Amino acid sequence: MSSHPRPVLMLQPSVNTTTVVTTTTTTTTYAPIQLPPLPPPSSPKDPKNYPLLHANLPKSLRHFPLVFPNGSRATFRDGEGGDEDMQEEQEVVSGSGWRMLKRDENVQDSSVVGLSEAVERYGKKRSHSHQSDNMMEGIETTANSSSTVPPPRKKARAAPLPQISTVNAAAPPSPLPSPHGSPAPESIWPSAPPSGSSSPAPQAPLQPDLALTTLLTLPNLLSHFTSLPPQLQSHFLLTLLRHSPLPVLRTLHSVLTPTLARDFLTLLPPELVSHILSYLPFPTLARASRVSKAWRAIIDSDAVLWRDLLKNTKIWFGGDSESSFANSIYARRRRAQRNDPQPSLPLPHPYKMLFKSRHLTRTRWVNNPEPKHISFPAHGSSVVTCLIFSHGRIISASDDHSIHVYSPVTGERLRTLEGHEGGVWALAACKDTLVSGSTDRTVRIWDLATGRCTHVFGGHTSTVRCLAIVKPEMVDVERDGVVVKEKWPKRPLIVTGSRDHSLRVWALPRPGDAEFKCFGSDDGEVDLAEVCDAEENPYHKLHLDGHEHAVRALAARGRTLVSGSYDCSVRVWDIVTGENKWVLQGHTQKVYSVVLDLERNQACSGSMDGTVRVWNLQNGQCQYTLTGHTSLVGLLGLSPSHLVSAAADSTLRIWDPDTGELRHTLAAHTGAITCFQHDEFKVLSGSDGNLKMWNTRDGQPVRDLLTGITGVWQVVFEGRWCVAASNRSDQTVLDVWDFGLDNDDDWIGEPAGGIYDDDIFGEDDDDDDVIKPMEEDEDEQQEQADVDAMDQDLIASDSDSVIELDDEPPIPSRSQAKARSREVHPIHETRSRSIPSSPGFEAPAEVAVPGRWEPPATSLASGGPSTSSRHSQPHTSRRHTRNISLADIPGPSSSRRTLPNNPDETPTRPRASRTHSNRRR
């Protein structure tokens, strides 16, 4: 090619040594000899058929030494690239105390001979082979030098060379010597004459041989080869290859293999590539994605591939779980792009990340026999009433009025949130915002980044027992008979349920919004019932009134709110308008737990009557009544494919939410289930003395995480992390397990319920191993104790001025209750406790603990308020026929209290005044 530099042959300087009395060494350098250039390649019509047309030859083929018959040495160099590559290597090859010399620093360096010079020189061999070496034209004579003064080193100028053609153009290509002879050597081998007139002109120190003759004929050989038909070209090359030694074949292979390789993933249509890759297992795909950046981009971005892989491995759950995960990842990337607009590598599709996370969740929790485990004390000996894991933080609340934030890695307490004047019974978090509800009747908003309480919402007149944060999401809404997708609510909301029989809806303050506190810092002693007027709160939206007893549980998503109450009913509300859409009646005793399933348009509720009911939210009818539990169903959990219930009968049950079919009964605990959480792979449940892990799909126990302890208060998990709060020797302890390995940093957990908050503010048992048989009376007492263990609201909190019997921490065992009773319940210190009187109400001297409420008359749910005659019946008529004393409740007390005689007064009815202990300064 004319644009490429011509090959050259650099001659090594000749050395003549003459020994007389002294030794004189003469060094003569020669200018590079230009070899005839190769003919430029023709421009093919389809370059894809000529992959080697512009292939880069390896350095060993562009720069190599030559040894001529008389021992003279030279270096063949094809163009200037070899020298540049060589120079670059010399510049980078070095070490401590040494470095490789550059080419011009080595005096022993060989001369470089160009291709044309080498061909010309080797062509001379045949025509002058009959002459002796020292008589050959162009060869320097070393024995006849009589100069005693070494001439200075001098580089001769290169002379232009004529085009050499040794064969007839019509003759077949042959490496044999040309019969036509060559031009005079004087015009071919120019050299630098040594200085001084007495020195003879130096001659080129080489004896041409077959190699040089071949180089001379190569240009014409190449011209003839290109004019041959493809079959003859193949025959000719194969003939040469058959006579080539192994080193030559290896060199050719190193050139041909990368050049002729074809990346089929980049050449095939994306649909076909996705289909081919779908046959590969996950480990093979992971290795293939590391072949090249192009393969990684193709594999990681193929949503169909990873969706099918999720389905084939049975970890595609359906519903909104996958889309919710993807939306969460996209929200994180939008925030990250503000800091790093151009990532170095294409980001994988969220389905690929989801597959890896679910694969790790399915395998690590079972196959990691020794996960990292730390434990540390928390909250002294007080009960942990709430425990959540949010954005890599452990947040625990207690009936000691405090909220603590811990690091799951070190167990270090990061923050202590103080401000509540009563036990904290409800928590919810999103990003750096925490919402808490307490027996002091307030709702507080905290900034987890700073630990400050930024807002205090008042309005409830009794304990805030449950709450939830409702984030905006796309939900189905019926408009004029057509179901459309709309985003509701328009901004994040807080829903709170209280023992004052009502629920309230608040706007969740955004970071930076104006702070609001329902009382002033210098108000002195104030009555919150008078000062905290919710109507004056700009964040207050709705007051949902309708329940006739304490609101025990709630669940909310989109525009739908479901609440369960001690009035045995479940109500469905429109969270935007406040409309009470349905009153779902069917339970015969208190409702303790509810879950909401928007995907199936249904809600589930658990009751003290031992049943779980599945309600159709479209018509308000009970679709299924799930029976099997023999005691209070105090806990419910819902995942895309499983509904799990936990009861005081020491069992958990896994149901099919679509059909109501019982799949598995988890029976290995020996006491009431005090806490549990589950996903599609596992169930973690706590009871007296142990914390167990179960396989969700076969209902078999997998391992015990905790054994031999007093009891478990709470358990939560997400991704690689598991956190449990338990009681050991009157000390509350937090245990943290990390099931991930060192290379599992990108293990992304799915939060409980599948609720993500990345874009919430976006632009848009006893220790006994043997269970002894019990008499009938003992059976009844044990059953009641198990019910009490699940009923977290039997014993009053010391923050209430009146003995209110609805809020109580979980009581996993008798021993736990005994350990707590001395500190938690001041009613154990005296035989009775007086109740301050209020206008219109004459308080009795003693209050009895209620037994089981008799079920009210069952009526079909209907829209609007309930029409039951509950108001006309005194509460005493709904009590159990026998009064149970505190001795029936786990805990050392023989105090006997009676219910109020006022039919309009219940243990949870709001009072008009509060004692001094509940006032705020």
From TrEMBL:
The UniProt annotation puts the region (Disordered) at 167-206, 752-786, 801-921
From the UniProt record, list the WD repeat ranges. Answer: 417-456, 544-583, 584-625, 626-665
Occurrences of domain F-box (ranges): 262-309
A Pfam family it matches: F-box-like
One Gene Ontology term from the biological process aspect of the record: ubiquitin recycling
Compositionally biased spans, kind Basic residues? 872-882, 911-921
Could you cite one Gene Ontology molecular function of this protein? ubiquitin binding
Q: Where is the composition biased (Low complexity)?
A: 194-206
Task: Quote the biased-composition stretches of kind Acidic residues, using this chain's numbering.
Answer: 756-786
User: Which controlled-vocabulary keywords does the entry list?
Assistant: Repeat, WD repeat
Asked if the Swiss-Prot or TrEMBL record annotates the protein with the keyword Electron transport, the reply is no
Instruction: Spell out the GO cellular component terms annotated for this protein, sorted alphabetically and separated by semicolons.
Output: cytoplasm; nucleus
Signal peptide range equals none
Renumbered to this chain, the Pro residues biased-composition regions fall at: 172-182
Q: Which domain of life is it from?
A: Eukaryota
UniProt xrefs under InterPro entries: F-box-like_dom_sf, F-box_dom, WD40/YVTN_repeat-like_dom_sf, WD40_PAC1, WD40_repeat_CS, WD40_repeat_dom_sf, WD40_rpt
The Polar residues compositionally biased stretches are 859-871, 892-905
Q: Where is the sequence biased in composition, kind Basic and acidic residues?
A: 820-832
PANTHER family, A to Z: F-BOX_WD REPEAT-CONTAINING PROTEIN 7, PHOSPHOLIPASE A-2-ACTIVATING PROTEIN
* Protein name as catalogued: F-box domain-containing protein
Native species of this protein? Panaeolus cyanescens
